[in-house]
Specification:
alpha+beta; 6-stranded antiparallel beta sheet; 3-stranded antiparallel beta sheet; 35% helix
Length: 244
């Protein structure tokens, strides 16, 4: 992740966020074209994410929810202006799961990655601000239900929104310190959904970041094979292919 020093006009930022930015130095650590992520180095350290209006409220609320379970950073401030959302969070110790430190030990990484997903999916649903996540993602993608139903006819599986999902369960979105779990980040697609959505992306990111599918079994074994329905994985593989 690049960290380039950058200028920020803090007077242009909403008043709810501004006091935390006084006399700070800013480093751009963005890794997505959809949002700007700034590392804030002042009397305290923070991360400030800036995106289009209406794009960060879900991340704010899901971060706050998972922080209550000690699984995500504290969301310090959230504000919007006419064009943008602003989310300020505390930093999470360690490095993200796609860092070279972890990629050099792929079997250990895949095991931890599977264990932490199972832990997330074991949380109680009470208090989660976004139920019915599967249908929401379908609506967001603009795919007509008849088209989806036709494409998924071959699969003997019915989605069930019964676990807390991350929604973008990729290696860069889990923070580790010496392979010890420290928190989930980038939770803007989370809510109550079907476990196989996260499982699909867990397998995808291992293949993408490790350049091999050799560690898929390690990941699924660590997650718990008894909780994995092969038809569910096949269903969501096709489902996500349509979304893409």
């Amino acid at each position: 992740m690049s960290r380039q020093k950058t200028y920020v006009d803090i007077e242009s930022i909403p008043a709810a966020v501004r006091p935390f930015l006084t006399n700070a130095v800013f480093y751009d650590s963005s890794c997505s074209g959809q949002a700007q992520t700034l590392r804030v180095e002042g009397a305290e350290r923070f991360f400030l994410k800036i995106s289009g209006k209406g794009r960060l409220e879900r991340e704010y609320r899901m971060t706050d929810f998972l922080h209550s379970h000690q699984l995500a950073p504290r969301a310090i401030a959230f504000a919007s202006d006419e064009g943008h959302d602003y989310l300020l969070t505390e930093p999470v110790p360690g490095e993200n799961g796609a860092s070279p430190t972890f990629l050099e030990q792929p079997a250990r990484l895949a095991k931890v990655f599977g264990e932490q997903l199972r832990m997330l999916h074991s949380l109680p649903l009470h208090g989660c601000p976004y139920p019915g996540r599967t249908r929401e993602m379908l609506q967001d993608a603009g795919i007509a239900l008849p088209d989806l139903d036709e494409a998924l006819k071959p699969f003997r599986y019915t989605p069930s929104d019964d676990v807390i999902i991350h929604g973008d369960y990729c290696l860069p979105n889990i923070m580790l310190d010496s392979f010890g779990f420290r928190g989930f980040i980038d939770l803007g697609d989370g809510g109550i959904g079907d476990r196989h959505y996260d499982l699909y992306y867990g397998l995808w990111t291992l293949n993408y970041n490790l350049k091999t599918d050799r560690y898929h079994d390690t990941f699924l074994d660590a997650y718990g094979r008894q909780h994995v329905d092969p038809e569910g994985l096949a269903y969501f593989t096709r489902w996500i292919e349509m979304l893409d």
